[in-house]
Write a structure and sequence with these properties.
- This protein starts with 5 loop residues before the first helix and ends in a 9-residue tail after the last helix.
- The chain is built from 5 helices and no strands.
- Helix content is 80%, strand content 0%.
- The relative contact order is 0.15.
- The protein has one domain (6-158).
- The radius of gyration is 19 Å and the shape is elongated.
- By secondary structure, it is mostly helical.
Length: 167
């Protein structure tokens, strides 16, 4: 495997941090917009919140998830860290799979379903089972996404668990 020069490693690491910061920031925006939608009785505001989140799920979340994943893999492969040498990296890989499922896929589905339910039933239908169920899954997904992303930051800083033993 090719190895990176120190300058190239710093550039790749900078891109990785930038993409992951965009992903975390967008996830926090999702949290704010979902709380706004849940707390409002204004149909226009609720629908606008869901539409904004849908646009973000198709753009910022998708691009930053791909960027973070690709740069993370390249950093692992092109440096001494490796993909499976350290427990903290394996933990980040598992959390990355979770973030991929929740981010580009879950957020897209939940926002689209929310928009459809709101357009079909209006704000009065926001108390119906399907909308409430979707909102709870969506809110839970946002929470899991943020916790997983913060955990990945902490794993990167503290690097717990050390190197895996040989089997």
């Amino acid at each position: 495997m090719p190895t990176l020069s120190m300058k190239s490693k710093k550039w790749l690491l900078s891109l990785h941090i930038l993409f992951s910061a965009i992903l975390l920031g967008t996830s926090v925006v999702f949290l704010i917009l979902s709380i706004t939608a849940a707390a409002s009785n204004d149909a226009g505001l609720v629908l606008a919140s869901y539409r904004s989140m849908h646009v973000l799920s198709d753009t910022s979340i998708r691009a930053s998830t791909i960027g973070t994943t690709v740069t993370g893999i390249l950093l692992s492969v092109w440096t001494h860290w490796g993909l499976f040498k350290y427990r903290w990296i394996i933990s980040k890989e598992v959390l990355t799979l979770l973030v991929i499922l929740i981010g580009p896929f879950g957020m897209h589905i939940w926002t689209l379903r929310g928009i459809t339910l709101l357009q079909d039933t209006g704000i009065g239908g926001a108390t119906q089972g399907a909308y409430v169920s979707n909102s709870l899954m969506f809110f839970t997904g946002i929470g899991i996404q943020i916790v997983a992303l913060v955990a990945m930051y902490l794993l990167s800083v503290f690097k717990p668990g050390g190197k895996r033993g040989r089997s």
